[in-house]
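User: Before I run my own analysis I want an independent prediction to cross-check against. Here's the chain; please return only the C-alpha cells and, at the end, one sentence I can use as a sanity check.
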Amino acid sequence: MNTIQRIAKNTIFLASSNIIGFVFSFFFLVYTTRYLGTERYGLLSFAIAFASITIFLADIGISSVIVRDVARDRSKTAIYIGNSILMKVVLAAITLMSTAAIGFALGYPFSTMKIVMVILLSLIVISFSGIISSVVSAYEIMEYISIGTVIYNLIMLTFALLAISSGVDVYGFAYVYLFSSFISLGYFALVALRKLPRPRWNIDIDLWKYMIKEAIPFGLSSVFVRVYYYVDTVMISLLILNPNEVMGWYNAAYRMVIILSFIPVTFLGSIYPIMSKFYVSSDQYLGFMYERSFKYLMAIAIPIGVGTTVLGEDLVSLVYGPAFAPSAIALQILIWSEALIFINSAFGYLFNSINRQMVVAKQTMLAAGLNIILNLFLIPQYSYIGASSATVATQLFSFLFLLHIASKEGYGLPRNMISSLLKILVACLAMVLFIRGFDHLPVPLLIVISAIIYFFLIIILRVVDNADIQMAGQLLSGIRIPRKKG
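Assistant: C-alpha cells:
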C-alpha cells in the first residue's frame, strides 16, 4: 500500500468514526444542556475546565513521543508501553493530590470539588487509553482508534440518557464521564492484547529520563493549550458574581465550536506518522503534504465560520432552546477562533513532525499568557462576550506567530494561497446570498444546500487543482504516486 493510499485508509477510518462520534457528541450536548439548564450546565462545565487544566500533570506529552518514536522504530513498542504505564501511575497520584489542594486553596466549596475530582479521574483513565491509542497510531492501524471513538461516544450518550431518565443531579451526571472512560480503557486494553507486543515492565530509568526530556515540549504545548481552552471558564468563575448561568451560556457556545475540532484532528492525525517519516526521507514530499493540508483546512474552515456567523441565532435556538439565547453572540464570535484553529493545526503538526515541537510549545505558552491577560481586562467589563473576543484574538496571534516561524523554516504560506482564498470567499458569498434569500427554509436544509453550493463552486473555480485531482485518482485507482521532478 503506497503513501497516499495509507493516508486515505487512515483518514477514511478516522473520518467515519469521528463523524459518527460527532453525531453522538452532538446529541449528548443537546440532551445534557437541555436537561441540566444554564446554571447546572455551567457548574459541570467549570468542573470539566478545571480538571482539564490540572490533568496535564498526568500526561506531560508522553503520548506524542510514543507516536513519533514507535512510528520510526516499532521494536521500541513493548518497552515504551510498559514504562509509560508505570510513569502514568506515579503522575496520576500527583495529579489527584495537586488538584484537590489547588481547588480548596482557591476557595471552591467541597460540593464543587467533588464534581471536579470525578471528572479528573475520568480524564486520568482516558490518559491511560491514550498510551495504547498512540501506539496504534504509530502502527497506522487507525481503524481501532476509530472503533474506540465510536464506542466511547455511544457509551457517553447512553449513560447520559440513563442519567436523565433517572433524574440525577449534576454530581451524579459527572459519573457519566467516569463510567464511559473505564469502558473505553477496557476496549483499548483488548486491542493491545490482540494487536500489540506485550509490555515490558522492567523500569528503565534512562528511558524515563529520555521520554521526559523529549516529552516536555509536547507537554508544555499540552498544558498551555489546555489553559488556553479552559482558563476563560475558570476566570469567569472567579471574576463574576453568581457565574454559573454565565458559564452555561459561554460553554454552550464553546462546545458547539470545539466539537468541530474532530475535522483537523482526523485529517492531520492520520498523516502525522507519515510526515514524521518524510522528515528523514523526503523533505520535498513533506512540503507537498504541508501545502495541501493547509489549503484543504482553509477551504473547510472559512465557510464554516461564515455560515455559523450568519445562522448563529437559529443554530442556538435549534440546539439548546430559548433559555440559551444569549449564547448566540458568543457562538458567532467563537466560531472564528475555531476557523483559525483549523489553519493553525497545519503549522502545529508540521513542526511536531520535523522535531521542532518547541516552536509549538513556545506558541502555546505565549497564547495562553495573552489569553489570560485579555480575559483579565475583558471579562469584568464584557462578561462572556469579552471571553469570546479574547479567544479569537489569541488564535489570530497564534496564526501570525506560527506563520512567521514557518516562513523562516522554508514552509511559509502555500503557493497560490491568495488566489485560493479569493475563490473561497467568492464561493462563501454565493452561499450567504442563498441563505439570505431562502431563510424561510428549515435550518438543517439550509445548511445542507448551502454546503453543496459552496463545494460545487470551489470545484468550478478550480480551488481544487490538477494535483488534487491526481491524488484523488490515485486514492480511487491504487496507481502509485508519481515522483515530482526537480
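Sanity check: The chain has 15 helices and no strands.
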